[in-house]
Amino acid sequence: MLEEAAQSAIDMFLSAFNASDDGYVTALLSQALTSDVVFWGPLGRSEGVEAVERFVLDIRRHPAGAGTMVRCSAVDMPGEWARYQWVFTTPDGGPRLAGTDVVHLRKNRIDQIIVFAGDIEPAP
Q: What is the pTM of this model?
């Protein structure tokens, strides 16, 4: 049951990247995240839904055009932590970015997100 709740919150979070209008982003994030969410993104640590919203809106305004964010793995959830892989693709086969996020859930909502973008290089 916890895995289903995690998957639902994760998919709701990712749907904010694909919303038909910027005006829907806040509502989607508010359903997926706690108000005090801690977000570890490419530019460091930030807190609150508004900080995550700024990140999502920046991605939505990619110079190559609005892209598509999709979860491309199952949700793996040992306890209250979950991880999943995602892919972001811009229109017309433009730039593509993939990564893995690790999230912590509290009361069926994400209260911590750690974004790992790109592949890990093999050890020498």
A: 0.90
